[in-house]
Amino acid sequence: MNSKKLIGSVCGILAAVCYGTNPLGALNLYQEGMATNSVLFYRFGLAWVIIAAVMAIRRENVKVTRKEFAVVTALGVLFTFSSLTLYESFNMMAAGVASTILFTYPVMTAVIMALFFKERTTWQTVVALVLSVAGVALLYWTGGTAGTLPLWGVVLVLISALTYALYIIVVDRSDIHLSSFKINFYVLFYCAMGMVIYTLVSGQTLMLPPSGRAWFFVGWLAVVPAIMALSLMVYSAKYIGSTATAIIGALEPLTAVAIGIGLFGEPFTMRLVAGIVLILGAVVLTVLKK
Questions:
Q1: Contact 72, 64 (CB under 8 A)
Q2: Could you read off the pLDDT of 19-39 as tens digits, one per residue?
């Protein structure tokens, strides 16, 4: 393995692990008494401040064309819905299970591209769809008072996966040429403003992190699963390609499951293992198709 492939592989592993630590920050902040709207507002707000500072240092302007403005607005709305529904689901089910169900998004992306953009449907896509549905069904029957996960929680995660799949498709099909810093400058701003609107509509309030520990985990969410994961993923895709990076991305839900079980006492069952294997198998099939 040459040096670039080694660097790309290491970056891909670190990016996946970083993104998989979302539950570590979210669940600790929930324990501090913060609601989802406050957690996400401070996460996005702090990440936006950091990105803005980096752009100022790089002397990168924030001007965009009308087309680019429309695209980053769509991306901001989609990412806001994806994040909000995922974090709300953490209140209803084990975060590791939620993160695993979320990883159906590559399969959703492939299906949408086949249905609406006339990409050829292969046997891998069909098998992957069956495997992912079976995996979600297995995970659905892993917990809850009646032997199942909360249906609304599963729906929220699937909405999160769908909106993230649409986010990827918009990026892929929009044909805009902006740096990742500029894209995320706008996306994070929209996400923070989205949390303000959600707070007003839902009649909630924004709660300041109540302790130094809470501020630490807000910073963690802003830096590790957001900025660091994004930056590392760019280098991974550059050096080893998007397919290999996507396969390594299977470490994301595995990291979330390990954190949930090891730090928060979430249940570990063979049915959970089987569901994870089916979903990850679907993802590998999807990214390996020619």
A1: yes
A2: 889 999 999 999 999 999 999
